[in-house]
Write a structure and sequence with these properties.
Blueprint (H helix, E strand, L loop, with lengths): L1 E3 H16 L1 H10 L4 H25 L2 H25 L5 H12 L3 H7 L2 H20 L1 E3 L4 H25 L1 H10 L10 H15 L11 E4 L5 E9 L18 H6 L2 E7 L5 H8 L10 H5 L4 H7 L3 E7 L12 E4 L16 H12 L5 E7 L33 H27 L5 E9 L4 E2 L5 E2 L9 H4 E8 L8 E3 L3 E2 L3 H8 L2 E4 L10
Parallel strand pairs: 1-2, 4-8, 4-9, 5-13, 5-14, 6-7, 6-8
Antiparallel strand pairs: 3-15, 5-12, 9-12, 10-11
Helix pairs in contact: 1-3, 1-4, 3-8, 4-7, 8-9
Amino acid sequence: MSSGFKKIIILYAWFITLVFNKNLLIYFFDNNAFLFQNVYFIVALFITIALVIKIFLFTFGQRYLLKPVTIFLLILSSIVYYFQDKFKVLVNEDIIISTFDTFLEGNVNELNELLTFNFIATVLVLGVLPSIFLIKIKINYPDNIFKEILQRGFIIGLCFGFLGLIVFSNYKNVSLIARKNEKINRVIIPTYTISSIKNLYKKYYLTPSEVKIFVKKATAVQDLKRNIMILVLGETARSDRFSLGGYERETNPRLKEIGVQFYKNVESCGTITAYSVPCIFYLDKYSSYSPAKARYQQNVLDVVNMAPNHKVIWLENNSSCKHVCDRIETLDYMNLKKDEYNPGQKDEYLIGETKKVLDKYNKEKNLLIVLHTMGSHGPRYHNRYPKEFEKFKPACNSNSPEKCETSILNNSYDNTIYYTDHVIAELIGLLKKYETQTNIGLFYVSDHGESLGENGIYLHGLPKSFAPKEQTHVPFIWWSNKLTAGKNEVIEDQLTFEDVPGKLLSFFNIKTEPELKLKNRIK
């Protein structure tokens, strides 16, 4: 079978446009009435998508590259379509960062949880099979390379001409509808994901690799007692599922008995781990934060670690520290052999490891121990807690949360919060053994929240600008031996991750040169 390169490009441009953008149509008419001007707009938009893909393929699909580039678009589009269709997840810069990190870190467990039968079937049918069909076709090109270049240039010019005609023939209505639906571009497959890849290249590969230093000297006003803090980084825990904050289910029985401060109105700075974790420790202007900047800047852990007689240790039980711990001592349990530890499932393992660290540095240093937990990481929520912590039954035992009834899915997720309560309580128990010799504290923060089927959305990762509150509303929990035992306080203040660095430096009485101007609204 053979065909000319122009026919192949036009055929596959329309195939990608029509097959993978079903949700674009649904999204548009969910938010707009079925009127003539809206129908005109959506038809024009589909034609525009096809024209943009044609321009892309006529530009970059040169002879020996046409098949690989088209196959790349097919596979990419099928993957993006699956996550958009099943979970309402948009594959943007943050999701790409997270996926790239997962591959680099060799995080097999996280990849396995996403590789469901439906995922594989979708990619095979919509991505692989059309690719095989393309591979079998012999593509004919003009004998004269200059003739081919002229043909490509002419068609690209025609495409741009049609684009201009579509926009300006009804510019008033098109521009009004476009402004009303300013987020619609994020639903378009594959152009939004490709533009995100381009933006990431600018951010990461054009970022200087030298570490920016904010603090040249850090000193601590030493109390008669040492200071020890455990900072627990939760994963995917949403604030509204903690009974400490008023949730009707008792998910925090042990912390309720201990007595803690619960900050229920905290907004995360992102909706994925790779974006949010570096943000928690960020020292620069909060509004200008990006993971690319954070990677090459001194963070608050670096500052605590540089103070005399202070030690910071990172205990890793998640995917990685996302470069936050690059310059401090790290114990990574995800890379242990399976006979030593079963990675990625039970956070209890960190309790024993934390005790070892406390015993090692007993009476020696001021300690900040950071525990990066698996917490409530989906989609296999049932894998995050031991069977004896399955308080709410029946639980969803699938890695496809959309297949479970809402009540059963909620049971599994609430069990992860119930187990987190146990882990935090055990860590506080460890700290209490040192309270006669030290000032002790435990701080808990989750990196982001999670959607559990609200409005048909699952998991996390939507762009922060329009992510639902379930993905951005997270808790702070603070405990110290200076709080009244058994007394719980719910604090309604609106806080962000910007408040964390100031809290850490304040707890350890650290003064910096030059002085850092940091917020600290945590009591």
